[in-house]
Write a structure and sequence with these properties.
Helix content of chain A: over 70%
Shape of chain B: globular
Oligomer: heterodimer
Largest sheet of chain A: 2 strands, antiparallel
Number of helices of chain B: 15
Strand content of chain B: 5-15%
Number of strands of chain A: 2
Low-confidence stretches of chain A: none
Distance between the termini of chain A: 29 Å
Number of helices of chain A: 13
Strand content of chain A: under 5%
Structural class of chain A: mainly alpha
Shape of chain A: globular
Mean pLDDT of chain A: 87
Number of strands of chain B: 13
Number of domains of chain A: 1
Structural class of chain B: alpha/beta
Strand order of the largest sheet of chain B: 6-5-7-8-9-12-13
Order of helices and strands of chain B: HEHEHHEEHEHHEHEHEHEHHHEHEEEH
Radius of gyration of chain A: 21 Å
Chain lengths: 330, 462
């Protein structure tokens, strides 16, 4: 992947601002406590939180790459997969078997979505497909709760959740955040390789460009859609496991899509590396802002600050940091 | 020729398949229509009943369902217990109808409007189970003459019955809860005199609900000399790392209070653990103390404390009766008998007790027949659930006695402090009474401001 020079400049400038603004705020305001170890603790915590956002954002990117459609149902898929996993586990299946069974369920779901919803919408306007995904989201929210119930469920895969001190006891990092970052890293690398070096990956990119053109050169659109929705389902399951371990498996899991949106705006809707870099910038940016800027304006800013940060990037890169530049000549 | 015939065959096959598809579509449509008709036919059965209508606004679905389900089960179980065991109240059967709000204010108002005229006398009282719905109904209930009972939520100044004749807030308010939390911290520290110089942080849901205790806490901080720091958490509170880094690694307070809601609660407890903040110094209001909030927090929740305006446990006589009469005959509302006794379940029971005791009292005055909202308002104005009455109901120690009057729509407002041991809540204090002289002044002042804004002339309660 070739990274454009202005992208490197923007990332470098944003990193510089992430250091200068908190430091300046600490110098200017007595309300703000600034020490370098604490700054790094917040920044690392933010980067690791950002990885968790990327996990959700990846699912959106996959569907968008293959169909040019923003999949409104991605949050619902995260909830549905986690509910299914815990539900099967509670029925007595061992966890490893529950994971396999949930993967099969997500595959069946992908086939069902292609057969029932997408097949008849080939070559329709993207807005039609988008609205179809809104329908899928509401269906999955309701269907998942009907089958598995609305009670909150514990998902404990035995990951350590203890805080540990690093760098000579100066910086505190939670073990779980490190594990989540590791898992997300492996997933991102696997997906990047899949898209870059496999025939299916190339076919996916062709379909994203133009449905009809892809069909005309013999790319089986229906199969591609099933594959991509299944892969998005797998990503949803991984996100569901990690977020479910953190928050418990409950309806609120569907809301984590809200945390992925600024990541997508910033990173670009079509780039797997964009989702991860976007997640890191949003994660670190919102945490640093909450700790070092929020005290001056009353606190509680991290959610809207993430969106503001993403919009600020759009000023310089309208297609997102790693999004595809659209050039249409009249 | 052969090709032509083959093409004709293919065409016939295509038409036949198309017809099959159409027939299948018709079949699907007919089934859907039948299901729809069945639901329409089933609905009037509830409305046709001539007992005492009881409308229950619940949220068994949506993001807050984990806390809403046990409440709804507790409420329904108590109503059904009275029906099954006693044939209702004084021979008047209770016709319970639930309406799911999914904790949406618009749906809550819709439920109220849909149900307020049900049954022979309409809805006798509304318990919205949501501060948002409460605010939306404040004017409507006065016009409809239906009491609005908000137990542990809604407007704290609803305690002033002179301005709010149709609003009742027993057994406790958020302002009282804030005072009780500081009272408990003072007792832990060896008296109010030792609070001087202590740091107390409030982590709160950044909404009207979450901001409710701030005024009281600021007044108490001024009085007792502790330092209060505020940490708003934007809805829904899925991510609080920055907030907790500030609390646990920067401020390092002596105590943290929480006015949280839904997923925010478990996340806060986990993040508190992630920065090593001692859970024994972390105290939540009753809406941050559901069993459902502790489950996802797992081991991190052990030691965490919460205020409760009802007792905890499932071993009271009322629970035993419910188990025998309902669950023994497969008539329980909860999925399993294990759900009985969760704090939210007990809260549902308590709300049902308040409503049914008001109905019983109203029937004592107006006769054994379905009661109107106005008649129940009369009863709520003089509600007196004594210790002896609670004993009769099998709930002695589970609920605090409640005595209301024309001007006092709250009662004593007491609560207990409970602690999570990893499996269940354990009471670690007796009932703590808030500083009623200070709070009464605040209620009256706030209610007077509301009356002025709305042009309400307070009624004379002398």
């Amino acid at each position: 992947m070739r990274v454009e020079r202005d992208v490197i400049y923007i990332i470098f400038a944003s990193l510089l601002l992430m250091v200068i603004i908190p430091w300046s705020a600490g110098m200017l305001s007595e309300d703000i406590f600034f020490e370098w170890p604490f700054f790094f603790e917040v920044a690392i915590g933010g980067l690791l939180a950002g990885v968790m956002y990327s996990l959700v954002a990846l699912g959106f990117v996959l569907i968008f790459k293959a169909s040019g459609v923003f999949n409104f149902a991605q949050g619902a898929m995260v909830l549905f997969s986690a509910l299914t996993l815990v539900g099967l586990n509670e029925m007595g299946l061992p966890m490893w078997l529950s994971i396999i069974a949930t993967l099969i369920v997500m595959l069946i779901l992908a086939i069902a979505i292609e057969r029932v919803v997408l097949r008849s919408l080939v070559n329709q306007e993207h807005i039609i497909l988008f609205m179809a995904t809104i329908g899928i989201a509401y269906f999955l929210d309701g269907f998942g709760q009907t089958i598995w119930g609305s009670e909150v469920k514990l998902l404990d895969l035995g990951f350590s959740q203890n805080p540990d001190f690093y760098f000579g006891g100066l910086i505190l990092i939670n073990d779980f955040d490190l594990i989540a970052a590791g898992i997300a890293g492996v997933l991102v690398i696997a997906l990047a390789l899949f898209f870059q070096y496999t025939r299916i990956g190339r076919a996916l990119r062709a379909v994203a460009d133009d449905h009809q053109a892809a069909l005309s050169v013999g790319i089986p659109l229906k199969h591609i859609w099933v594959i991509v929705w299944a892969v998005a389902g797998i990503v949803a399951l991984v996100a569901g496991i990690m977020w479910g371990s953190k928050l418990g498996v409950q309806f609120s899991l569907a809301l984590i899509a809200l945390k992925a949106l600024p990541v997508l705006i910033l990173g670009g809707f079509t780039s797997v590396p964009g989702a991860i870099i976007g997640g890191l910038i949003i994660g670190a940016g919102e945490k640093l802002a909450e700790v070092f800027i929020a005290p001056m304006i009353g606190g509680g800013i991290e959610d809207w600050f993430a969106y503001m940060l993403a919009l600020a990037f759009l000023v310089f890169r309208p297609q997102g940091l790693f999004g595809e530049k659209i050039i249409e000549r009249v | 020729m052969h090709d032509h015939e083959s093409a004709q065959d293919n065409l016939r096959l295509f038409r036949w398949r198309k017809q099959r598809v159409n027939i299948n579509k018709v079949k699907t449509g007919l089934i859907a229509a039948a299901v729809g008709m069945a639901s329409l036919v089933a609905a009037p059965a509830v409305m046709a009943a001539d007992g005492q209508f009881v409308g229950s606004l619940v949220y068994r679905t949506g993001p807050y369902a984990p806390g809403g389900i046990p409440w709804a089960d507790g409420f329904a179980d108590y109503i059904n217990l009275l029906n099954e065991r006693d044939g209702g109240i004084n021979g008047v059967k209770l016709d319970l109808e639930e309406c799911d709000t999914a904790y949406n204010t618009d749906k809550g108002v819709e439920c109220y409007e849909r149900m307020k005229g049900n049954g022979p006398t309409g809805m006798p009282a509304v318990m919205p189970l949501s501060t948002g719905v409460t605010y939306a109904l404040l004017d409507r209930v006065v016009a409809d003459k239906i009491p609005l009972i908000t137990s542990g939520y809604g407007r704290a100044d609803g305690a002033d019955g002179t301005v709010f004749p149709y609003v009742f807030v027993p057994p406790a308010t958020y302002w009282g809860g804030a005072d009780i939390a500081i009272n408990y911290i003072a007792s832990e520290e060896g008296g109010y005199g030792n609070l001087k110089g202590k740091k107390v942080a409030l982590v709160y849901h950044d909404s009207a609900y979450g901001k409710e205790p701030i005024k009281t806490l600021e007044a108490l901080a001024g009085q007792h000399g502790f330092e209060l720091s505020l940490f708003p958490v934007p809805h829904p509170g899925l991510e609080q790392k920055a907030t907790w880094l500030k609390i646990g690694r920067q401020l390092r307070p002596d105590y943290v209070l929480m006015w949280g809601w839904g997923v925010m609660n478990a996340t806060a407890i986990k993040e508190a653990a992630a920065v090593n903040f001692p859970r024994e110094k972390f105290i939540g209001v009753w809406w941050s103390g559901n069993d459902a909030d502790m489950v996802p927090a797992g081991k991190a929740a052990v030691g965490y404390k919460s205020l409760q305006f009802n007792g905890v446990g499932a071993d009271f006589d009322v629970h035993k009766m419910i188990k025998t009469v309902l669950y023994g005959n497969n008539k329980g509302s909860a999925k399993s008998v294990d759900g009985i006794g969760e704090v939210a379940y007990n809260r549902g029971l308590q709300s049902a007790v308040i409503l049914t005791e008001a109905l019983r009292s109203a029937m004592g005055e107006f006769g054994n027949k379905p009661m109107t909202g106005e008649q129940v308002q009369w009863a709520m104005d003089r509600l007196d659930i004594t210790e002896a009455r609670l004993k009769d109901l099998g709930a002695e120690g589970l609920f605090d006695p409640i005595k209301l009057s024309c001007s006092d729509h709250q009662g004593k407002g007491r609560a207990k402090v409970t602690q999570w041991d990893g499996k269940q809540w354990k009471a670690i204090s007796d009932w703590i009474e808030p500083n009623s002289s200070m709070l009464r002044g605040m209620y009256v002042e706030s209610a007077a401001a509301y009356a002025k804004e709305k042009g309400i002339t307070p009624r004379d309660c002398k």
